[in-house]
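To: structure desk
From: M.T.
Subject: fold request, one chain
Message: Could you run this one when you get a chance? Sequence is below, nothing fancy, just the single chain.
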Amino acid sequence: MRMAEPPPQAWVVIVLFGEPPNQLWPFLEALQAQRLRLALVDNNTEPLSPWRGLRHGLWLHHGNRGGLAGGFNAGVAAALQADAAWITLLDQDSRLDPHGFNLLREAWQRWPEQRLLVGPTIVNAETGERHGRWQPMQPPYDRTRLLISSGTTLQASDWPALGPLPEALFIDFLDHAWCFRAQSRGFQLLQDQRVQLAQRFGEPHPQRICRWLGMQLYSPSRHYYSLRNLRWLLRQREIPLDLKLKELVKMLAKPWCWLAFEPDRRANLRAICRGLRDPLPEVR
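Reply: Done. Structure tokens follow.
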């Protein structure tokens, strides 16, 4: 009697930074119940205590080398070494219905010859509105030009063609760089309408004017990366002009608001000066 082959390994790579929220652990238990394997990447300088509930997967300390991009790349590399067939990227604050991870892989059944990146529809957790731009395709799929890394699913065999997330950028505009590079290499980007991810984009800003402008509260170090990396983004041929102009117009107002309305003005001023004059990252 021929034995049944085990199902292909589906992995979820989750980057941990700071103290993980308490609600993360029940969520990880639910993922393991769906036979998903976890690559938990501790990206803190000082390592956390490994989660004792981890049964299917691995725990990796990466020390924030290469920022969020480096954490994702390290987790993907470890999953590939463990013979992953499918990989979904996720940050520690994002939540999907555990069954949604299985749904995200179904696009390859419909288009087995296509190079695909598939993600959930993104909903702003504060406003309830759908985030981003999309074009209707064959239900339940929409075509998009930009996915956020959290929730994005890929076929492990496509990783060499996709290439790693650009660690030189560290954090801001990672998704832009990776997604438009993927499209230049023949990948289609899809969103699955059946799977929703409620995403928080930073902390709510305490100042009314900043909230009206759609700003979130971030640290001075994030301000540095957003400004420096925007300078890099504006020079990239594959990034559409309308997206460049949108980000540039927003950045014309943001530094003034950082200085006028946010705590630690000196740190913000240093971040702005560095972001405007530091050498641009070399992204491959």
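Reply (cont.): Residues 1-6 have pLDDT under 50 and may be disordered. Let me know if you need anything else for the meeting.
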